[in-house]
Task: structure prediction
Amino acid sequence: MALNETPAAQRIHIGFFGRRNAGKSSLMNAVTGQELAVVSDVKGTTTDPVYKTMELLPLGPVMMIDTPGIDDEGELGQLRIKKSRQVLNKTDIAVLVVDAGTGITKEDQEMLTLLKDKQIAHLVVFNKADLHAPIAADPSFVYVSAKTGVGIEELKDRLAAMKPHGEDKDLLENLVKPGDLVILVTPIDKAAPKGRLILPQQQTIRSLLDHGCLSLVVRESELEAALAKLHQKPALAITDSQAFGMVSSLVPEDIPLTSFSILFARYKGDLKQAVAGVRALERLPGQSRILISEGCTHHRQCNDIGTVKLPAWIRTFTGQEPAFSYTSGTGFEEDLTSFDLIIHCGACMLNEREMKYRLACARDQGVPMTNYGIAIAHMNGILRRSLAPFPDIAALLENDSRHNGQKGGADEH
Result:
């Protein structure tokens, strides 16, 4: 995949934060060499976060984010400040832009505290250094002028050296080796983008190519015929979660089976937390509330998995009528305490930092959180099988079953 086609969720997110008129927009334009953000002497020109994908060498594919001022005023201003702080949840590298003439203010210091609390790699950049030369330069800061270009190359070099840990993570780590045959089951329903595969399927195919594997992509309707024609035993089968039940019945037990959603739960989130969270389906109280959250926004189809299929499966499995709430895209409930369970999609459209922020919110508020694939496998009685490719997690499942004295384990209802 070309760099300019890298999915947004796979890009390093660089957020520019600071007070109004500190020069955030001008600085982002100077770093990118493009007029991406509107620049004005009027305070508060940037009223909503502005996103732009690009390639920033030598860092690579990035998502640049310009944010509203952190010192905005009034009721509307407070909403803008809230939006700026929400951007932190997806920011890999933060640039705190300080007006060199004003110096670090109370608002800047509060933002620095937030960055440290959230453990976000960051740089403090003094802009307008052409007008206000520092009396005693601090080597940990960067001094620039967005207007003249002074210090911009140093800033880019410093950003490039801050490549977040884990950017080279492998979706299929320890699952395949060169020459392995992997079968991918990809239902084509009304929600599938016309002429394209959905992002988890694309990324899995690319990862298989990187590993030197052979991949066979089939619909669930052709799976049985495809398996009958194979002369090489597949090393792994990966299915869309909504076809878990049917695929499990067709794929022989000696072929490891999992889902795209479970792969992404390990890749971007916390698979252990998600597996532990699914147990909440066994103990939902009366009048329970469940939050179903998706990382993308799309037109809801008549048989949508998040709003139609999953709630129906949960009602059948639990014999209850929970109250369901839904979020999509960047929207996510801040107060989760009223929910008895959160079920999240595979998060292919979210970056790792944002997904882990959501998991941490649930964990800190004591609310169980699981994943589409894990929940569907559990309700189909095949969770143990779907986790077999991940021995460390499967072992935890076995230990948990023995500790609770359950003969069948977490995937049997």
